[in-house]
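Sequence, please.
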């Protein structure tokens, strides 16, 4: 379509071969019956009209691969044809070469030919009227338009339709590609969300189970073992409930099922109490300071993110904090909900329970998805985890 020719495309198309054969045969038939485009030009023998006809028929083989060359040579041939008795077949072949030059030529030529042939048609019409000064002179302009401007305009119309179809197909392919990219990104985001939920829900309970099972194995007293087994059972039951809730969330959204409760900041006291029970054997105490103004609720995504960040921070404290007091602080000011966990920080031989290292990453992701700020690090003998989350309705869901 853009006129670019490759080595493979130099071979004539089979349709072009048929056109060339049909053109020369029809011209020979008309010539043999004495049918000419003009019978008043007898300066040259009648057979001379076969020369432009043969050349024009041969040019049909180049109508796709060399459209500009075929049109240029064809123009000379059709002019030469006018100095003979004339062949109607030669004129028809020229109209096809004009059409092919617009359809298969370069874009610049395709835009230029309809305009130039239109101007030529107008100029020929005016010149014929000025020279002959008869109404029949208009026929010369009409014939010129039919031979040059008509095929060029037809070819331009077809080319525009083809280019519009190609552009529409490309847009459809781009739209499909963008949709596939969006789908892939949505899958990645959903998998990351599921990973955060699974980590935050289960890690707390499994860490407590690991810590107290270690204590039960190392302290050989009936009371300590009973207490440890009680904590293990409580965390295993709660972990199983959390897993069932997650499985319920992963089921088909269209399936009939009972609504599942989502953790909220109203359960902070229970969360801290559970951490206090789990950390008692490790010399840890947990204190909650809730300074939120009453009657100012936050959006569900922010509330869930704040709860999960506190839950993961308490889990990390159970694993890594040295004996002491862990302080949990929740506050709200100027439309920002802040959650902070300060845990005693010092040298330890190793964590009380193994970890994956994904806790801080998950907390940071939750905060950034909501447009908040997250910090974590040592400060004055304490390890501080702090998240500032937008508490207004404009917050984006996690």
């Amino acid at each position: 379509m853009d006129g670019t020719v490759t080595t493979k495309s130099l071979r004539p198309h089979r349709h072009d071969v048929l056109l060339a054969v049909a053109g020369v045969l029809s011209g020979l038939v008309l010539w043999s019956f004495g049918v000419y485009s003009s019978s008043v030009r007898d300066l040259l023998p009648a057979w001379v009209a076969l020369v432009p006809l043969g050349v024009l028929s041969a040019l049909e083989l180049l109508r796709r691969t060399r459209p500009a060359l075929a049109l240029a040579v064809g123009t000379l041939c059709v002019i030469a044809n006018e100095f003979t008795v004339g062949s109607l077949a030669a004129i028809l072949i020229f109209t096809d070469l004009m059409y092919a030059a617009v359809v298969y030529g370069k874009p610049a030529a395709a835009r230029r030919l309809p305009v130039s042939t239109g101007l030529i048609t107008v100029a020929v019409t005016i010149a014929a009227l000025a020279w002959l000064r008869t109404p029949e002179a208009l026929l010369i302009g009409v014939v010129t338009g039919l031979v040059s401007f008509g095929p060029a305009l037809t070819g331009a119309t077809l080319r525009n339709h083809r280019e519009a179809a190609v552009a529409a197909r490309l847009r459809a392919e781009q739209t499909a590609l963008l949709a596939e990219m969006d789908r892939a990104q949505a899958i990645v985001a959903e998998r990351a969300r599921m990973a955060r939920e699974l980590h935050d829900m289960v890690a707390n309970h499994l860490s407590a189970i690991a810590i107290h099972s270690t204590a039960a194995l190392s302290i050989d007293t009936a009371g300590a073992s009973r207490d440890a087994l009680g904590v293990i059972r409580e965390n295993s039951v709660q972990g199983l409930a959390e897993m069932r809730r997650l499985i319920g969330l992963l089921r088909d959204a269209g399936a009939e099922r009972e609504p599942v409760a989502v953790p909220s900041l109203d359960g902070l006291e229970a969360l801290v109490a559970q951490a206090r029970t789990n950390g008692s054997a490790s010399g840890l105490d947990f204190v909650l300071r809730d300074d939120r103004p009453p009657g100012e609720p936050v959006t569900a995504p922010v509330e869930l993110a704040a709860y999960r960040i506190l839950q993961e921070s308490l889990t990390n404290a159970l694993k890594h904090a040295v004996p002491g007091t862990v302080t949990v602080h929740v506050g709200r000011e100027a439309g920002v909900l802040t959650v902070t966990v300060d845990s005693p920080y010092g040298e330890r031989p190793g964590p009380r329970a193994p970890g994956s290292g994904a806790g801080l990453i998950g907390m940071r992701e939750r905060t950034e998805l909501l447009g908040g700020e997250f910090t974590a690090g040592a400060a004055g003998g304490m390890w501080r985890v702090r998240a500032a989350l937008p508490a207004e309705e404009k917050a984006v869901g996690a």
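The longest strand covers residues 324-333.
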